Amino acid sequence: MTEWNSILLRPEYALEEPDEILVKVVEFLKKRKVLKVLDLGCGAGRHVVYMASQTFEAYGVDMSETGLKMTKERLKANSLDAFLVRCDMKFQPFINSCFDMVICLNTIYHQRLKEIQQTILEVHRILKNKGFFLVNFHSKRSYRYGKGVKVEENTYMDDDGPEKGVLHHFVDEAELKQLFRNFRIVKKRLNEHMVKGWLRSRWEVLAEKP
Q1: Which tens digits make up the pLDDT trace of 113-127?
Q2: 85, 116 in Cβ contact below 8 A?
Q3: Which end of the chain lies in a sparser environment, N or C, as judged by fewer CB atoms within 10 Å?
Q4: Segments in the chain forming alpha helices (H)
Q5: Per-residue pLDDT tens for 45-82?
């Protein structure tokens, strides 16, 4: 995934404001006494910085050296601390049941289905019982579905543009149910809006490890 070392240098891929879905769930997490939080595929670090600013014990992992460097710089600029490590999201260097929360936004779907399944198994392993997993996926209703080079069923590789060479996997509600069979889904919604005349459609899921 070395493509992300250059992709993250583009301003639109290195936003500083946290995603609305995360901001909306923070008070709920505080009430549930969530403390230790991992951002899986942290990119340029906006969610690591945000969670650290909200007094959570923040961790971030990514395969991109560029992303981790940007995250470190942003933490320093805001006088915040977090633990950062470079690794593949499918193979986490953490012990079992050590996190209260795992965040994975705009990231997990850049893999084949088997790799997504492996990533979810790893999240389940490192989450404490009653720990939460906040994640989103491309919906098959998205305008991007079917575009690019087909790699496998519901998975396509961009053959042009800033994400050339990057995979995108798309899911429907039935596949979501299967992916989260070992979790309790707390909240699930299809977030859709038009962007320059095109439908952007993503499933947002907040799940709990039983």
Answers
A1: 999 999 999 999 999
A2: no
A3: C
A4: 3-7, 20-31, 46-53, 65-77, 113-126, 173-179
A5: 999 999 999 999 999 999 999 999 999 999 999 999 99
Nearest residue to 85 via CA among 64, 104, 103, 105: 64
Domains present along the chain, CATH in parentheses: 3-137+172-208 (3.40.50.150)
Pair of tokens at residue 123? 């999240």
- The Cα 48–Cα 58 span in angstroms is 6
177: CB partners within 8 A, 6+ apart: none
Task: Indicate whether this model's pTM tops 0.90.
Answer: yes
User: Which residue shows structure tokens 């961009």?
Assistant: 158
Q: What is the DSSP code string of 118-133?
A: HHHHHHHHHEEEEEEE
